[in-house]
Amino acid sequence: MTLNIECSLPKLIFEGSNFDELEDSDFSNVVKTLHECVEKMGIKLIGNPIESAIVSAIHFSKNISFLDYTTVSSVLKYVEKANISRRLDLNTKRFDNGGSAVYFYAKSHAFVLYDKIQDLKQPKGRGVEDNTFHAQMDIFDEIRRVHRQPLEILRLEYRLLNRVKLKAALKIIGAPGLTTFRELFSARLSHKLLQHYWVNIMDSLKYPILSESLSVEEVVREVLRQQKWHATPSKTLQIIGCYYGIRELGMRSFNGMFNKYFSVGSIYRTLAQMNDLEFKQSQKFDPFNHIGKELSEFKPLKMKDLVLPF
What we know:
Layout: H1 9-13, H2 27-40, E1 58-66, H3 72-79, E2 89-94, E3 100-105, E4 109-115, H4 116-120, H5 136-147, E5 152-160, H6 163-172, H7 181-184, H8 187-205, H9 216-227, H10 233-249, H11 251-259, H12 268-276, H13 286-297, H14 303-307
Antiparallel strand pairs: 1-5, 2-3, 3-4, 4-5
Helix pairs in contact: 8-13, 9-10, 10-11, 10-12
């Protein structure tokens, strides 16, 4: 007999809430709770089959909090411009009462970024996930009242939807061959996979999308300076045109639009030269530095950590 189990582990442990994040030390409690749930359905388990169960799909996730007036929507506005592989479709969802979500997705996997608090406010069936726990909204409102400033939560999810893609993703981060629930219940794996994907996003946003706003004269001067003796009038004009196109549309959309009228890869060399240039980061980059720092440290975010110190 084969038994397939699909559930949200944080919701299972934290009474319907997936805001608090699980830690490796929670594993025994997770297994015990799952065991009890299965037996309540009249299914008798012998030994520890849950620990050794083969994982078919898994979502690795992280909540990032902002208490500095940064809004998740402002971050996602730039993430939409990231030059993620065109093998992934891009979709943006706007919530009716504010907030948004960005999906980079394919049949086998997806990377999703969304406004966690606004998602909780959505009517059933309209959010990123099916929310059944709304009491935490009162806590968010209380935190905002005490701080007298907005609390914003960005949620990142890397969704691996079948075993083939899961195996490939684990190989990329140097952890091949892991298949069981016990092996994959790991903060280290979650950390590595989310950070790997986030680095790809940041590499495509750094220049020129999140650079300082420059005048046309300053852009021309920087392009000429960084090309040094290799500059030609035509090459310089191409790079300047790419600078403004990428800054406005993002590399992905700009390249896609260009390739509608010309051969695929026709501006590949110019785009590559564009990526070689460096421009001073603007303050728009600060929230992204914060996200990078939080992913690097990878400390579990708990509701009590936002409430108790104040």
